[in-house]
Amino acid sequence: GGNGNGTPTTPRANGAFLGGAVQNSTNPNGAQLMRSVAGSPAAKAGLTTGDVVTAVDGQSVAGAAAMTKRIRTRSPGDKVDLTYSRDGQTKTVTVTLGDRNASSTQ
């Protein structure tokens, strides 16, 4: 008896997003950017493939799901501080979240 729940659920009420695919990272613990979409909030903030987000607004994230959950509690247009690790250096950048539901192609 499977429950037929094979597709990931995406909350529709909130379209806040960074614009990149993330996976779990263990060194350091966090959410590693696998792909950054050109023109996305992540790309505009200077995040690139391989960066590992370790905290959102100063609250540490253990992995991809935790980071995604934190982003989804925010609203499109909100500014969030992302702490990330690149080449062994930790940096913090402010990102203005995009709106997944907007039909902008710019």
Helices and strands in order:
Elements: E1 16-17, E2 20-26, E3 29-36, H1 41-44, E4 52-56, E5 59-60, H2 64-72, E6 79-86, E7 89-96, E8 98-99
Antiparallel strand pairs: 1-8, 2-3, 3-4, 4-5, 4-6, 6-7
Class per helix and strand makeup: mainly beta
* DSSP strand tally: 8
Distance between the termini: 45 Å
Helix content: 10-25%
Shape: globular
Tell me about the largest β-sheet. 6 strands, antiparallel
Write down the overall mean pLDDT: 86
Q: Write down the Rg.
A: 14 Å
Walkthrough of the structure:
The protein is mainly beta and 106 residues long. The chain has helices at residues 41-44, 64-72, and strands at residues 16-17, 20-26, 29-36, 52-56, 59-60, 79-86, 89-96, 98-99. The strands form two sheets. Strands 2, 3, 4, 5, 6 and 7 form a six-stranded antiparallel beta sheet that branches. A hairpin with a 2-residue loop joins strand 4 (52-56) and strand 5 (59-60). It is globular and about 35 Å long.
Care to give the gist of this entry?
This protein is mostly beta strands. It has two helices and eight strands, in the order βββαββαβββ.
